[in-house]
Amino acid sequence: PQILIVGAPGAGKGTQSSNLAEEYGIEHVTTGDALRANKDVETEHGTPREYMEDGELVPDEVVNEIVQEALESADGYVLDGYPRNESQVEYLEGITELDVVLYLDVPEEELVNRLTGRRVDPETGENYHTEYDMPADEEVRDRLVQRDDDTEDTVKERLRVFEENTEPVIEHYEDHAGFVRIDGEQSPDEVWSEIKGAVDERV
Ligand code: AP5
Ligand code: ZN
């Protein structure tokens, strides 16, 4: 299947995309991870780092190219973190078709808590949370890091950028065939079972 997952920063896109990739044997295409892996690569618009550390969008030309290349080589995918504005929506429509659009709906106070408490294992990329999801293994616990953009000020700016640029994207997809709103405030397992049910019904 060709799946798009949309939602605010911290809605659980990365967490659920990993489940989807594993369950359906598809590629997890994520612009956030791709950009983090190439943070210091110079483009004609500067480096991704300059935008990401402030919570701003990286220029469309840079991101569009990443997505086009990744989708071309994927046999089934879950696309996470893109499109984030209407110009990216148009670009995406020119290169692929979507079977399912999953919207993870989570209220803003919950997003701030999830993001500022998130810790990442640099070796596996696995996400944890300081309040309710720490690894049992002490070695793993000791190597966890906070993402550069998960500080309180940058989180606020990311949420503002989401409201301004990405909420219209979600409105755009509401009328799209295969659109499903998922209550993303439930536990990760409950969210996953709702997602799996919705995808199985549509592919
Ligand atoms: P990106 O990496 O895409 O970040 P984001 O959209 O802000 O989303 P996150 O990765 O923070 O959250 P998520 O929804 O994946 O949630 P997660 O599963 O991790 O983008 C980063 C930056 O890159 C952007 O700001 C921009 O600069 C740039 N960029 C990326 N794409 C771009 C584009 N298309 N155009 C331009 N620029 C672009 O979960 C979050 C936390 O919550 C974790 O701790 C997790 O354990 C926990 N959690 C997950 N699910 C649940 C649950 N159900 N209940 C409780 N806790 C949960
Ligand atoms: Zn993510």
What report would you give on this structure?
The longest helix is centred in the last third of the chain and has 22 residues, at 152-173. This protein is an alpha/beta fold. It has one domain: P-loop containing nucleotide triphosphate hydrolases (Rossmann fold), CATH 3.40.50.300. The protein has helices at residues 13-24, 31-37, 48-52, 60-72, 86-95, 108-117, 138-143, 152-173, 188-202, and strands at residues 2-7, 27-30, 77-80, 100-105, 118-120, 127-129, 179-183. The protein starts with a strand and ends with a helix. It is globular. The structure holds BIS(adenosine)-5'-pentaphosphate and zinc ion. BIS(adenosine)-5'-pentaphosphate is lined by residues 7, 9-15, 31-32, 35, 51-52, 55-58, 63, 81-82, 84, 88, 114-115, 118, 127, 129, 133, 149, 158, 187-188, 191. Catalyzes the reversible transfer of the terminal phosphate group between ATP and AMP. Plays an important role in cellular energy homeostasis and in adenine nucleotide metabolism. One of its GO terms (biological process) is AMP salvage. ATP binds at residues 10-15, 118, 186.
